[in-house]
Write a structure and sequence with these properties.
Two copies of one chain form a homodimer. The first copy, chain A, is an alpha+beta fold. Chain A has one domain: Roll (Pnp Oxidase, Chain A). Chain A is built from four helices and nine strands; from the N terminus they run H-E-E-E-E-H-E-H-E-E-E-E-H. In chain A, the strands form two sheets. Chain A has a seven-stranded antiparallel sheet with strand order 2-1-5-8-9-4-3. In chain A, strands 6-7 form a two-stranded antiparallel sheet. Chain A starts with a helix and ends in a 21-residue tail after the last helix. Chains A and B meet through helix 1, strand 3, strand 4, strand 8 and strand 9 of A and helix 1, strand 3, strand 4, strand 8 and strand 9 of B.
Amino acid sequence: MENSEAEIQKAISEISYGLYIVSSMSGKKMNGQLVNTVFQAASCPPLVAASINKSNLTHAYIEESGIFSISVLAQDTPMPFIGLFGFRTGREIDKFKDISFKLLAGCPAVTENALAVLAVKTVSTLDMGTHTLFLGEVLAAETLKEGPALTYEYYKAVKHGKTHKNATTFYAGADRPA
Amino acid sequence: MENSEAEIQKAISEISYGLYIVSSMSGKKMNGQLVNTVFQAASCPPLVAASINKSNLTHAYIEESGIFSISVLAQDTPMPFIGLFGFRTGREIDKFKDISFKLLAGCPAVTENALAVLAVKTVSTLDMGTHTLFLGEVLAAETLKEGPALTYEYYKAVKHGKTHKNATTFYAGADRPA
């Protein structure tokens, strides 16, 4: 049995994910970022969770405001749109300047290329080293259109997408950011 | 904007998942169960997490032993095999009696129908209401075969699979267990 770092990374890479934009705000400032780890944490009442890198601006905004939104991306989301939310920082640009969004329960939620949007109020957090898991109650939700959701597998295999260095799934040995 | 329970559940159902068997042990007794919420929590060192219903036997075994394994299921996993781990309880039957498994870092890991197996040592937990999130370090991992992973979407759409009442994603209004 081999247990090298590469062998562990290869096995971990078999885990399936969707792709989402998680957004939050600080006063009138808004920001959002690409996230692959979003999941329903409990069924009744419905709790959802999202994992965010501690060094990202969206992390600071969620800590400050206690709310965030989740936009479930459609499979046909264009790569430049993914690049805007996945590879740019809100510290340098206003990501919401030219895209469609709405306020859902008071929280900005990206509606462009989204199948559904959810607004979440944080109730608990878990320190996961490089990332924080934000667990929260769903305040409001809307389904915007029908169609297949974008998966991380599809993004990598069909769209030849890269992985940002701040992602949980980043592995320097296999996949360097553009 | 409608915010009925059904509207929230519809939006939540757009979240993507894989399907896994999470196994653990109590002395010489072994048990495992179907899980949809497994994710990489941090990149360096690699941490992974799994969400388990508090009322399940596997939950008690992980709490006792502090270790668990994850088997990433292949897309062609037969439905009776999924039924064994997803809809039967280890309190009544020995799920490991007739299936292939191995001991990985001392923890039983189902190898039948698995693309990869990981052994994990719990380092932290998060109470999520009906479920506990177990976060841990990867002790060992092996890739067993190549091929597409089974996703929850494929299980529901192509295999017409049901959702157990103890799953995070169970919603009585839409999907009753067999």
